């Protein structure tokens, strides 16, 4: 289970927060914690309430989490078992001498 409050604060700390519309590094109108202003109601120069902007961040994060969950669920059979992959990594890290000792 995801601790949404902890996630919100972590993303806010990492990404930064502005309560007014600003231009991001790609010169796109953005507000709050990296939310692209795709809706029509954003006004330049207006200060927005932090609770309102954090609510938008929470919706954005939940949407991303849901999409990741769907992608993992829908493609769960498209990838080899993790156990097989970890064995290959162990072989590569251990090297041929360790492998030959282990397999005797």
Number of helices: 3
Structural class computed from helices and strand pairing:
mainly alpha
CATH topology tier name: Lysozyme
CATH class: Mainly Alpha
H/E series, N to C?
HEEEHH
The name of the CATH architecture is Orthogonal Bundle
The stretches of 5 or more residues where confidence is low (pLDDT under 50) are: 83-104
Major sheet: 3 strands, antiparallel
Distance between the termini: 43 Å
Percent strand equals 5-15%
Tally of strands: 3
Mean of residue pLDDT values = 79
How helix-rich are the residues, as a percent range?
A: 55-70%
How many domains is the backbone divided into?
A: 1
Shape: elongated
Q: Using only CA atoms, what is the Rg? A: 22 Å
Biggest β-sheet: strands ordered side by side in the sheet: 1-2-3
Descriptors for this entry?
104 residues, mainly alpha, Lysozyme, 3-stranded antiparallel beta sheet, 3 helices, 57% helix, disordered C terminus
Topology:
Elements lengths: L3 H12 L2 E6 L5 E4 L2 E2 L13 H25 L7 H22 L1
Antiparallel strand pairs: 1-2, 2-3
Fold and architecture overview:
With 104 residues, the chain is mainly alpha-helical. It has a single domain (4-93), classed as Lysozyme. The protein has helices at 4-15, 50-74, 82-103; strands spanning 18-23, 29-32, 35-36. Residues 83-104 have low confidence and may be disordered.
Brief overview, please?
The chain is mainly α and 104 residues long. It has 3 helices and 3 strands; from the N terminus they run αβββαα. The protein has a single domain (4-93), classed as Lysozyme, CATH 1.10.530.40.
């Amino acid at each position: 289970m995801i601790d949404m409050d902890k996630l919100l604060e972590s993303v806010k700390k990492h990404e930064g927060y502005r309560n007014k519309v600003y231009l991001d590094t790609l010169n796109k109108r953005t507000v709050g914690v990296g939310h692209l202003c795709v809706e029509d109601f954003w006004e330049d120069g207006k200060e927005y309430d932090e609770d309102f902007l954090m609510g938008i961040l929470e919706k954005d994060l939940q949407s991303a989490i849901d999409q990741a969950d769907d992608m993992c669920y829908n493609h769960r059979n498209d990838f080899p078992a993790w156990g097989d992959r970890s064995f290959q990594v162990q072989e590569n890290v251990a090297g041929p001498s360790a492998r030959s000792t282990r397999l005797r």
